[in-house]
Specification:
25% strand; 9 strands; 4 helices; seven-stranded antiparallel β-sheet
C-alpha cells in the first residue's frame, strides 16, 4: 500500500513539474515573439541612415535633402574630404557650435566617384550612443584600409561612454585596439538599438 501511495505521489510531483515547465516555456516563447514583433516607426533621419550603403552617392544625399526639406551644411576639409551635416533645424546642422538636435554626418572622398567614407546618426538625448556606417578612411579608431588588417566595412553602434568590449581593430603594424564599436548585421538593427537605448 505504501509503495502505491509513494508511486502515486511521485507521479503527481512529476505531472506538476511538467505542467510548470510547460508554462515557463510558453511564457518565454510569448516574450520572444513579443520582442520579435516590435514595430518601429523611423523618422526621416533614421530612414536615411538605414538606406546608406557603400553605393550611396553625393547625388543620393542631395536628392534626399531636397525631397525631405532637411537643413544641412556642407564643408570641404583638407585631404579632399567633404562632409554633410543633415538635421531638422539649421542650427543643429552646423558643423561647429551647433545647437542640440538629431543629426547625421556623412563624409565622402572629394574626387570622382565621391566614395562614401562613413555616416554617423546621433539622437539629441543620446549623444554618446550613436549609429555608424563605416566604409573606409579615418574615423576615430578606424584608419585607412591599408593600415588595418582586415575589412571593417559595416554597421556599428558606438557606445562612447561604455566599456571597450566591442570589436578589436587590428593594424598592419601589429598593433591592435579594443573599441566601444559593436558590429551588427544591418543598419536597421543599429538604428533600433539607438531607439531602444536608455541612459
Amino acid at each position: 500500500m505504501r509503495k502505491i501511495i509513494s508511486t502515486i505521489s511521485l507521479i503527481a510531483i512529476l505531472v506538476l513539474s511538467l505542467v510548470s515547465c510547460k508554462q515557463e516555456i510558453e511564457q518565454k516563447n510569448g516574450q520572444d515573439e513579443k520582442m520579435e514583433s516590435k514595430q518601429y516607426n523611423y523618422d526621416t533621419l533614421q530612414a536615411l541612415f538605414i538606406s546608406i550603403s557603400e553605393n550611396t552617392s553625393v547625388e543620393d544625399i542631395e536628392k534626399y535633402i531636397s525631397d525631405n526639406n532637411l537643413k544641412y551644411t556642407l564643408e570641404h576639409y583638407n585631404g579632399g574630404i567633404q562632409t554633410y551635416n543633415l538635421a531638422y533645424t539649421e542650427d543643429a546642422s552646423l558643423q561647429s557650435y551647433a545647437d542640440s538636435g538629431d543629426y547625421i554626418e556623412i563624409t565622402f572622398v572629394e574626387e570622382e566617384p565621391y566614395k562614401i567614407r562613413y555616416a554617423q546618426y546621433v539622437e539629441d538625448k543620446k549623444v554618446g550612443y550613436s549609429a555608424i556606417y563605416y566604409n573606409h578612411g579615418v574615423f576615430w579608431d578606424f584608419s585607412d584600409s591599408d593600415k588595418m588588417d582586415g575589412d571593417y566595412t559595416g554597421y556599428y553602434v558606438s557606445d562612447s561612454f561604455g566599456n571597450d568590449e566591442g570589436i578589436t581593430i587590428k593594424y598592419t603594424n601589429g598593433n591592435e585596439t579594443k573599441t566601444n564599436y559593436f558590429k551588427y548585421k544591418n543598419a536597421e538593427e543599429v538604428i533600433q538599438k539607438v531607439i531602444d537605448y536608455k541612459q
